[in-house]
Amino acid sequence: DLEGTLPTDICNNLPNMESLNVSKNQLGGQIPSSFSRCSEIKFLALSHNEFTGSIPGTFGNLSKLEQLYLGHNNLTGMNLDLFGTSFEHLEDNAYNDFFMKSIFVF
Q1: Strands 102-104 and 67-69
Q2: Do residues 16 and 40 touch, judged by C-beta distance below 8 A?
Q3: Cys-Cys link to 61, which of 16, 32, 36, 70 (CB 3.0-4.6 A)?
Q4: 8-60 pLDDT, tens per residue?
Q5: Quick one: CA torsion of 106, 57, 36, 93, rounded to 10 degrees?
Q6: In this predicted model, which residue has the larger pLDDT, 69 or 96?
Q7: pLDDT value at position 103?
Q8: Cβ-count burial of 47 within 10 angstroms (0-12 exposed, 13-18 middle, 19+ buried)?
Q9: Burial class of residue 62 in the structure, from the number of CB atoms within 10 Å of its CB (0-12 exposed, 13-18 middle, 19+ buried)
Q10: Where are the beta strands (DSSP E) in the chain?
Q11: Phi then psi for 3, rounded to 5 degrees?
């Protein structure tokens, strides 16, 4: 299992990363807002960890993101307005009265 926090400069070192799966570990702290620099990322799985705080608003800048897994953490908020507008590039599938392709937070 991985423990600790995700590096705040993860996307500076891996700008062309298309997929990251660190689910089912013991990672904690806040989700780095620097993920907005991972402009090629399509799949991001952070579920089943100990992340805290809110989902970074910069996720709305990930124009190629297709699947985002955030469930089973200690996240405290999600700006539904942000997700409703910032993820317009994702296909329409209903989730909690707003639309996006595959955002899993349960």
Answers
A1: parallel
A2: yes
A3: 36
A4: 999 998 889 999 999 999 999 999 988 889 999 999 999 899 999 888 888 87
A5: 50
A6: 69
A7: 52
A8: buried
A9: buried
A10: 3-4, 19-21, 26-30, 43-45, 50-54, 67-69, 74-77, 93-95, 98-100, 102-104
A11: -130, 160
- Pairing outcome for strands 98-100 and 93-95: antiparallel
pTM summary value:
0.75
Amino acid at 42: K
Structure tokens at 59: 């996720």
Mean pLDDT of the chain: 76
Residues shown for the chain: 106
Please tell me whether residue 69 adopts helix, strand or coil conformation.
Answer: strand
Report which residue type is found at 70: L
Cβ-contact 4, 28 below 8 angstroms = yes
Q: Hey, what are 99's tokens? A: 């639309």
